[in-house]
Amino acid sequence: xxxxxxxxxxxxGVDIGTTSTKAVAYDTTGRQLATNSAGxxxxxxxPGYAEQDPQRILDAVVTSIRATLTELDRPxxxxxxxxxxxxxxxxxxxxxxxxxxxxxxxxxxxxxxxxLRAVPSGLALHRRTGTxxxxxxxxPKLLWxxxxxxxxxxxxxxxxxxxxxxxxRFCGMLVTDHSIASGxxxxxxxxLDWDTEALAIAGISAQKLPQLVSTTAVLPRLTAWAxxxxxxxxxxxxxxxxxxxxxxxxxxxxVHPGMVACSIGTSGAMRVMVEHPGVDPLxxxxxxxxxxxxxxxGGAINNxxxxxxxxxxxxxxxxxAHAADELVALAAxxxxxxxxxxxxxxxxxxxxxxxSALPRGAYVGLTHGHRREHLVRSAIEGVCQQLxxxxxxxxxxxxxxxxxxxxxxxxxxxxxxxxxxxxxxxSVAFPAEHEGSSFGAALLGMQALGLIPSIDVAADLVRIxxxxxxxxxxxxxxxxxxxxxxxxxxxxxxxxxxxxxLAPGLPPEPTPTPPPM
Length: 517
Known about the structure:
Blueprint: E1 10-16, E2 20-27, E3 32-39, E4 51-52, H1 54-69, E5 78-83, E6 89-91, E7 101-102, H2 110-118, H3 121-129, H4 138-148, H5 150-155, E8 158-160, H6 162-171, E9 175-177, H7 178-181, E10 187-188, E11 193-194, H8 196-202, E12 211-213, E13 218-219, H9 224-230, E14 238-243, H10 244-251, E15 259-264, E16 268-274, E17 286-291, E18 294-301, H11 305-315, H12 324-331, E19 342-344, E20 362-364, H13 372-396, E21 403-407, H14 414-424, E22 428-431, H15 436-448, H16 458-461, E23 464-468, H17 472-502
Parallel strand pairs: 1-5, 5-14, 9-12, 15-21, 21-22
Antiparallel strand pairs: 1-2, 2-3, 4-7, 6-8, 10-11, 13-14, 15-16, 16-18, 17-18, 19-20, 22-23
Helix pairs in contact: 2-4, 4-8, 10-15, 11-13, 12-13, 13-14, 13-17, 14-17
């Protein structure tokens, strides 16, 4: 199918991220034609809270789409959406906002999550819904609202995610896709329907949730408001799309079993595509949907590039506020293994593979001989070692790992690339383009609109720029240290527990540095 003047058709992939929305136009050959983004803040009004204003996000979606359209010289065949997972918003009966968007980073529901994890049915719930019992997920957040704000909880007519709300404004329909729903803890991933027990725990009925639809569902037209705001014709079809994690796999071309996608931005993740849903017996991984016959199994970590940002602020403020290159150069002066120094990078608690809000960061093995280059390098190594634990959980779930493809801001650094390959002990391929989720959204949209035969074409459209192979000696060092790294979490759990118990009587924590826009 050709677009205007015989040119390939164009789809805009709209990726609603944690700190910005990006709209990227692609044609069916995979060529990027235009891109624009608009940012928004993350509010932390009190410890454990991580909220955003949905209206600011909607404005950013409109701004990024409109700006991208101005750079195109041909019509758009459709929009397709990606968004960060696990957000929760309460709406009244008219669809108006009653709450901010409670993001994945919000940990206020820690006690509710721990209570759910402790009961015998907790692991069974994880295996059935694919979502770990963790404060990131909407299920514990709903429990928090029911217990802490019962009047508001009763007033809410609909609980939705951020993409659901944007689509309501864009298309006038209240729907959520199987991918976003598989990250709520409320959907049975085998039946693709809301889970009766999870709904009972949350204290809500299915009528308070959006209608479940396929990720390739097409909403046939825009509302008059959305058409006017974006500059698109009202007849423009909108593909509902999916979560940013599964779509990142698609955007990296990691669409076949055994191909693992790794991303390190502010946070990080490891995901492998599988053809049937399933969670490992110990519950170390999540399982989220992409399509009815494609799922991703893996784990996300809270602490990715944010750890290096912290190291710059705390350990090397003299290098300046935007000195990532100088900071990495400093780390390169330290040896592999940082002279026996291990950092647990749990500055924002942690998710995979332990799925607990308890842990805190720690340096272990510090001696008089260590300098700040050792501390900075061990921070980078800690992030990569945590990803190695996630990869081990992916394997424990019965998945073969043949290839790793990586993306994210860290990929610009040669040292990060090499440490990652060494810590994982496998070769890591780096695609030439790093717009994983927006490209994945566009490809999913192209399939839904009949513009490409299958999302399998992604493997051929993604060009690999570089392959980093592990250095045998460095890989052996990290393999030796990994069991120690893993042991430290279990050893320090009692300390983490005591610190949380004592926290109310201690001076308050320092105000965190705002995440980068």
